[in-house]
Amino acid sequence: MKQKISITIDREMxxxxxxxxxxxxIRNRSQAIEHLVNNSLGENRTAVILSGGDEKSMxxxxxEYRITxxxxxxxxxxxxVKNLRQNSFKNIFIIARxxxxxxxFDILKDGSSYDVKISYIEExxxxxxxxxxxxxxxxxxxxxxxxxxxxxxxxxxxxELWNQHVRQNAIATLMLTSSPKPSSKGIVKIEGxxxxxxxxxxxxxxxxxxxxxxxxxxxxxxxxRGNSLEYDVFPKLAEKGLLEGxxxxxxxxxxxxxxxxxxxx
Length: 265
Hints:
Radius of gyration: 18 Å
Number of domains: 2
Helix content: 25-40%
Largest sheet: 7 strands, mixed
CATH architecture of the largest domain: Alpha-Beta Complex
Number of strands: 13
Number of helices: 8
Strand order of the largest sheet: 5-4-1-6-11-8-12
CATH superfamily of the largest domain: Spore Coat Polysaccharide Biosynthesis Protein SpsA, Chain A
Shape: globular
Strand content: 25-35%
Distance between the termini: 49 Å
Order of helices and strands: HHEEEHEHEHEEHEEEEHEEH
Oligomer: single chain
């Protein structure tokens, strides 16, 4: 049973709510608000697994890509999808080149066996992570999670990252962890939750807090120019005060080689 309520909303936020109305599925402001609340708090959150880039560079053997690598009983992408589902992400987009998508589809199919809906988006060419992510432009109208396709993130608390993003007025909220090698990550200067500066793989840095290949974002991020999230988009958002960070004590694990799998297992 639905109840009628009265609420006060910031003007700019109201514009963002109205932008969700498509006059097909979401016909009015009330439906838009209900849709957004369900997306943030309910079982139909949206996530993007970003696995763009040249197919050769994504291989860890003749037959396996990073995203399809066998990790124990499951492949890397299966572990990712199961983890996302456990955190209420049921609408999942996977972005990759054609042969990689074919390999992933052979494993996941339409996602119904995992109680999710999977949409496959082919990247024909790309100049960087931001260009790849823009392939979902027009397909996502609410906040969404982005996970890079070559990481294991079983121990990371996605719910805390998501809830922080929903509470704050940021275009993106990055998952952050401490890093002993700042030159290998995107490094942030942060005060409270606000990221003041983002620098990708600096040669020298006294900052040891880095980006952990996962973030929550608003659809507006897709309108920012630049080929790379790390070199172009994130620095711009930080300059404008629109980038936040969530610090985690747990770290992601990158799978780039067979040796990485052995270390994990």
